[in-house]
Write a structure and sequence with these properties.
The protein is mostly beta strands. The protein is 6% helix and 50% strand. The protein binds manganese (II) ion. The site of manganese (II) ion has 5 residues, from β5 and β10.
């Protein structure tokens, strides 16, 4: 009897599309392969694989748009993003840092390359993750968690073989930085060539790994750069050997077993709630933000 999690599929990066003019993303889910509930509580994974942006005076990005009913988590591997919202909040997400934004009841925001980064141009690599909220928290007040790299939990592998940065959840007794509404784990496993790492998640947790850098053998299967490994809900253990210097984004969480009604940036339980969200935006209830 083995309690190894079986790999269900390893997905190559789908053809990218632009979000605004600043993010060139591969959408790993939700789509025809991984549906809206398959990775719950994670609803969406957009991956901006490495791309070189040419210098530009006017920063590229995404203009003013609303969100309601969930959280957006932006993980910066290369490059810098500035954000502004209708609550008057603003900030910069820098290389190695994470912004965990609870949109919940709703806000308007815009996301652009940081001015100085835009001016110089350079390598850009980011993840945006949407984390669903259960019905009882969908209308909570919006909030931010600016998680700089030094705030993350750190589990150092023995023998200087790398580090697991715990963004949310817990790993080997080390707690993550983010507070979350439901039980979930988000790690950056930064492994040196030959590093061996074992992780355990409950079998009913939905679990996946994005290979952000390098490549690894995961449960004895080759996982190349920019691929997403989806696990079946059948075991607990994941065994990883880094084939080279590697960065893995590890996602695992307890599914939220509620209906989903999603339209664009609104992630609710019913279509009436989506309609309400659209009406509330028109009525100015999400506040005001200039482009
Ligand atoms: Mn957004």
């Amino acid at each position: 009897m083995s309690n190894i999690k079986t790999i269900e599929t390893i997905i190559a990066p789908p053809p990218p599309h632009m979000v605004g003019d600043g993010f060139r993303v591969h959408n790993f889910f939700p789509n025809n392969v991984i549906d809206k509930k398959r990775m719950s509580p994670f609803f969406l994974l957009d991956y901006n694989s490495k791309v070189e942006f040419t210098p530009r005076e006017e920063p590229r990005g995404v203009g003013v748009h609303p969100h309601r009913g969930f959280e957006t988590v932006t993980i910066a591997y290369h490059g810098q993003v500035a954000h502004h919202d209708s609550g008057g909040n603003s900030g910069v997400i820098r290389e190695g840092d994470v912004q965990w934004m609870t949109a919940a009841s709703g806000l308007l925001h815009k996301e652009y390359h940081e001015k100085e980064f835009s001016r110089k141009g350079g390598l850009f690599q980011m993840v945006q993750l949407w984390v669903n909220l259960p019905a009882k928290y969908k209308m909570s007040p919006p909030k931010y968690q600016e998680i700089t790299n030094s705030m993350m939990g750190r589990y150092d592998l023995p023998g200087d073989k790398g580090v697991v940065e715990i963004i949310a959840g817990e790993f080997n007794g080390v707690k993550g930085a983010a507070s979350t509404f439901t039980p979930l784990q988000v790690y950056n496993a930064k492994l040196k060539k030959g590093a061996v790492l074992e992780m355990d998640f409950p079998s009913f947790y939905n679990t996946g790994i994005l290979v952000v850098e390098g490549s690894a053998s995961i449960n004895n299967t080759a996982a190349p750069a920019d691929h997403f490994v989806l696990f079946k809900n059948d075991g607990e253990k994941i065994q990883i050997t880094a084939s080279e210097d590697t960065i893995l984004l590890v996602l695992s969480g307890e599914p939220i077993d509620e209906p989903i009604a999603q339209y664009g940036p609104f992630l609710m339980n019913t279509w009436a709630e989506v309609e309400q969200a659209i009406n509330d935006v028109s009525a100015g209830k999400f506040g005001v933000l200039e482009d």
